[in-house]
Amino acid sequence: MSAVSPTNPLYRTRRRKHVAMMLMSALALGFGLFWLVWILATLLYEGGSALLRASLYTQMTPPPGSDGGLANAIVGSLVIVGVGTVLGTPIGILAGTYLAEFGKRSRLAGATRFLNDVLLSAPSIVIGLFVYAVFVSQVRHFSGLAGAFALGLIVIPVVVRTTDDMLRLVPNSLREAAAALGAPAWKIVTLVTYRAARTGILTGILLAVARISGETAPLLFTALNNQFWSTNLNAPMANLPVVIFQFAMSPYDDWNRLAWGGATLITLAVLFLNIVARMLFRKRT
After folding, report:
1. Among residues 151, 168, 124, 256, which one has the least CA distance to residue 213?
2. Are the C-beta atoms of 164 and 113 separated by less than 8 Å?
């Protein structure tokens, strides 16, 4: 009797298990997609109209009962996220380069990878409290720089992990070929391995930016908020996540509408960054 014969009891048992697992997987997929579609549909329904209003991008956050927009919060978020990315990205790339190219399987590299994974999974509110304790409480005022510092700490472990993984995927034959031509180690890293892994590293940076774009807890303890236009990094600065939190919790309908618009804007921006990152990674593979 053939092993794949329908009359084989073992085949029938395995077939039933296969069908059951496929059905459970399909149900789990459908369950997850259902909530995702529901969230996106709700955001577009509640905040889509606000995105089409020019005042959302040109006016300041208003007092209760007045028309306004989120211009200062949008610009503040761009500044804080940009500075945080600039602060965290070089440290993450250099640390990931050490782990992949020089430390490799040393004890220091192993301990660093473990601590990086711990930091990667640490709640963002803990990072916000840390920055508040070591920076904000010392200078005695909130600031956009403190918020950027907190977001930079969130960027670092993401970039370290991605850089380490991407550089370790580069074939050793490329390094050996460059070394055989007499290239020093720093040239092998900068001109060979970085070029081979640049798309993956850029993907990691984009994912880190998407990660910090919607962080609220660290900014509550660092940048706080500002109702007025301000690009001064040494003063409290408006930002979308905190404004959304405050407006969504308020009893005013006009603030609630702006909160929905801001939430939709952040969601679409994060979705766009993730799509771009996936496209770059697919291009690399």
Report:
1. 151
2. yes
Q: Distance of CA 182 to CAs 79, 98, 167, 172, 273, Å?
A: 44, 21, 21, 16, 40
- When pLDDT is averaged across residues 25-45 and rounded to a whole number, the result is 94
Q: How confident is the model over 174-199, as a mean pLDDT? A: 91
CA–CA separation, 15 and 8 (whole Å) = 11
The per-residue pLDDT for range 265-285, each reduced to its tens digit, is 999 999 898 888 888 777 655
Indicate if the pLDDT at residue 67 is higher than 90: no
Under 8 Å between Cβ of 262 and 70: yes
Asked whether residue 220 falls in the same domain as residue 90, the answer is yes
Neighbours of 227 (CB within 10 A): 16
Residue 4 forms part of a structural domain? no
Residue with tokens 């020019």: 54
Q: How far is CA 110 from CA 100, 115, 129, 161, 185, in A?
A: 11, 9, 27, 12, 22
Number of domains in the chain: 2
DSSP at 133: I
Question: Are the CB atoms for 88 and 154 separated by under 8 Å?
Answer: yes
Q: What does the pLDDT read at residue 149?
A: 96
- Under a CB-based contact definition with an 8 Å cutoff, are residues 215 and 241 in contact? yes
Q: How far is CA 235 from the centre of its chain?
A: 25
Q: Looking at residue 201, which CATH number applies to its domain?
A: 1.10.3720.10
| Nearest Cα to Cα of residue 242 among 157, 124, 88 | 124
Q: Which amino acid would we find at residue 249? A: M
